[in-house]
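Progress note, sequence design subtask.
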């Protein structure tokens, strides 16, 4: 084991932390990529800071403005408020379900946020921090609407991606103005936009370039993650330009100055201010003062985000805070890279994702397993892949076989030998001394990883502590020793119980549900004080002799192959559906007249008999009641249906098709079919709920 110098302060002064997690955009539920990239690491960090008795405000909220929500509302024929109300509730519940301990989860449609963002804008306006300019912006003549952000799609001027949005290219991460796009097209009508004059307020980022160079490029070269630092450096090196912070849109926070009628704040201007409003809302509720959390030099502000948000949190928001003048700047922005799923990019539109509500339906009470698998494989320095096989292995080989196994043996043996009472130890052996010393070192080792935002490493050290316990029991074999040396057995079990107690406390940031269960098994609530992170290093005894623990309960269960296969099947179905959706529809055939159409005599019928055509793979010989008569039709559907399956089927029949012989059988008509995404034939038939008689014409 490596020993790191302690990053924690040794005195009892607690430090103030304002921890923010990216505001999820409220146009859909959240998936494992969001959890891995932002919310689990942020929660581990916040829980750890609370355990070390620091003063923490951990805030987040729904990001409810912007163009994509208005597009979704239009598509679904509802109001933007309906869209955000629906997903705000779903997202908030997912966070609660997965034990993300926000002190406040707010929303940007809240009045306190509208006020805070308006005031912030006004303050910059009064200070003359904006450029007010009438410029030509993209306009859709048909939709009679200015095209900003996602209302316009075009070629990225930097990387050539043909599907870049007006404010950002999702492929290379570049943030730009809509007028920078090459070959722009309206996302509403598909038309090429025209240019029309409109007034907007711009934040002159170029004016803040020197400050950003000094603060980030010089000041944070060592402590910011290389992926974050590198992206910021490349933007600054490219040269920064003024960015419009207002939009011609009717959904959002109205621009609170003269000439701002019919315009709103750009969603990326108001969203980060959401962290401030969420803190205010929390402080009001708790009877605290919010200002120290944002304005006191001794507060450490940390933004947890995904890599697509780096420009907004490292360049735009800090420039806004600096321009306002009374706020602190982030101490760190530990952005993660992206998580892929089974080798492919997570995608909402392609349904290539594991949605949190669905996960909990399939794996009830296994929140910690997902938290652990995502942390152990977190995309901290590069994009990473989530696979269901790895998920299963993390559960079965680590959580069950190491952590769960150790705890189970300790608790079962303590109950068996001593009725659940922690035994009195005798003299420690050298192994005992070394083991207990190693346990005491873990809080510092794990803290050092967490303080450097290395959560994967931290989670592996946690597992190493469980491994240490497991090995100690396996080497000391109390189940053998008890036959010859009762005093020694008591000492072994005493040592093992100390390790179990350390695990209960130290696992809390990573496995909060398990930690709670384990604390309850070990009756931590009966202890004089709630154990803190430091206690593990400083106290010689965590569970004293005579302390009564509870009965054993399994902390983790094995995940079977069939459960993993079911998840893989689900993804395979998504893939097939996507392939089918992407299949280009056949081009329209040559135009026909109405007279041409009326020549077709289509009737409703019922298949009354069916048998396989001998020696023909594809053909079924059917007897069909057409209402006019009962006739024979040979149909090429045998690869999709058995004869038994189709008897009784309601069908649509073309009855006046000239008869033709197929393998010697005369076929008198044709049954209308189409094809499912999987290539299976599907009957085109009358609505099963409607009573339609055979022989009725279709026109
Ligand atoms: Zn690009």
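Output:
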């Amino acid at each position: 084991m490596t020993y790191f110098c302690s990053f924690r302060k040794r005195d009892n002064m607690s430090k103030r932390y304002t921890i923010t997690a990216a505001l999820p955009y409220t146009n859909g539920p959240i998936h494992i990529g969001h959890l891995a990239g932002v919310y689990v690491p942020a929660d581990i960090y916040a829980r750890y800071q609370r355990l070390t008795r620091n003063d923490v405000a951990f805030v987040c909220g729904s990001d409810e403005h912007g163009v994509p929500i208005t597009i979704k509302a239009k598509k679904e024929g509802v109001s933007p408020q309906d869209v955000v109300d629906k997903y705000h509730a779903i997202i908030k519940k997912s966070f609660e379900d997965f034990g993300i301990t926000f002190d406040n989860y707010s929303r940007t449609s809240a009045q306190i946020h509208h006020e805070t963002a308006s005031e912030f804008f006004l303050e910059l306006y009064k200070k003359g921090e904006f450029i007010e300019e009438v410029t030509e912006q993209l306009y859709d003549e048909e939709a009679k609407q200015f095209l900003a952000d996602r209302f316009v799609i075009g070629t990225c001027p930097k990387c050539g991606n043909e599907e870049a949005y007006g404010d950002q290219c999702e492929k290379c991460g570049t943030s730009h103005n809509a007028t920078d796009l090459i070959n722009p097209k309206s996302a509403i009508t598909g038309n090429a936009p025209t240019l029309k004059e409109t007034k907007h307020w711009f934040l002159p980022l170029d004016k803040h370039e020197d400050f950003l160079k000094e603060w980030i490029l010089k000041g944070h070269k060592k402590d910011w993650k290389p992926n974050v630092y590198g992206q910021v450096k490349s933007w600054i090196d490219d040269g920064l330009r003024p960015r419009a912070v207002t939009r011609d849109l009717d959904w959002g926070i109205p621009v609170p100055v003269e000439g701002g009628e019919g315009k709103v704040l750009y969603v990326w201007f108001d969203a980060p201010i959401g962290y401030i409003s969420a803190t205010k809302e929390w402080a009001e509720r708790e009877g605290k003062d919010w200002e120290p959390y944002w304005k006191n030099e001794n507060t450490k502000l940390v933004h947890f985000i995904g890599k697509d948000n780096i420009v907004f949190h490292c360049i735009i928001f800090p420039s806004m805070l600096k321009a306002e003048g009374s706020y602190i700047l982030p101490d760190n922005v530990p952005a993660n890279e992206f998580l892929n799923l089974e080798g492919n990019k997570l995608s909402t539109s392609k349904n290539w994702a594991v949605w949190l509500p669905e996960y909990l339906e399939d794996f009830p009470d296994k929140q910690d397993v997902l938290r652990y698998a995502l942390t152990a494989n977190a995309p901290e320095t590069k994009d990473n892949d989530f696979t269901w096989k790895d998920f299963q292995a993390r559960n079965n080989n680590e959580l069950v076989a190491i952590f769960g196994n150790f705890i189970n043996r300790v608790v079962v043996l303590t109950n068996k030998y001593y009725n659940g009472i922690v035994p009195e130890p005798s003299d420690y052996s050298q192994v005992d001394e070394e083991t207990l010393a190693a346990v005491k070192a873990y809080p510092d080792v794990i803290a050092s990883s967490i303080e450097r935002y290395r959560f994967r490493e931290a989670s592996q050290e946690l597992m190493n502590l469980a491994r240490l316990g497991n090995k100690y029991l396996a080497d000391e074999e109390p189940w053998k020793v008890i036959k010859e040396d009762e005093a020694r057995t008591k000492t072994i079990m005493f040592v093992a119980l100390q390790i179990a107690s350390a695990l209960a406390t130290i696992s809390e940031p990573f496995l909060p549900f398990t930690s709670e269960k384990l604390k309850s098994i070990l009756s931590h609530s009966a202890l004089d004080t709630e154990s803190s992170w430091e206690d593990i290093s400083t106290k010689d005894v965590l569970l004293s002799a005579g302390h009564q623990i509870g009965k054993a309960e399994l902390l983790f269960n094995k995940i079977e192959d069939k459960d993993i296969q079911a998840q893989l099947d689900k993804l395979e179905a998504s893939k097939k559906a996507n392939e089918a959706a992407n299949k280009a529809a056949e081009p329209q055939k040559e135009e026909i007249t109405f007279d041409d159409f009326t020549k077709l005599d289509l009737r409703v019928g019922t298949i009354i008999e069916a048998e396989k055509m001998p020696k023909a793979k594809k053909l079924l010989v059917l007897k069909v009641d057409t209402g006019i008569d009962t006739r024979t039709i040979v149909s090429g559907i045998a690869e999709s249906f058995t004869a038994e399956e189709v008897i009784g089927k309601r069908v649509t029949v073309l009855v006046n098709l000239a008869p033709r012989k197929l393998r010697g059988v005369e076929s008198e008509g044709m049954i209308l079919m189409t094809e499912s995404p999987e290539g299976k034939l599907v009957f085109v038939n009358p609505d099963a709920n409607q009573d339609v008689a055979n022989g009725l014409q279709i026109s």
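The pocket of zinc ion is lined by residues 156, 158-159, 161, 164, 169, 171-172, 174 (CB under 6 Å). Work on this subtask will continue into the next period as scheduled.
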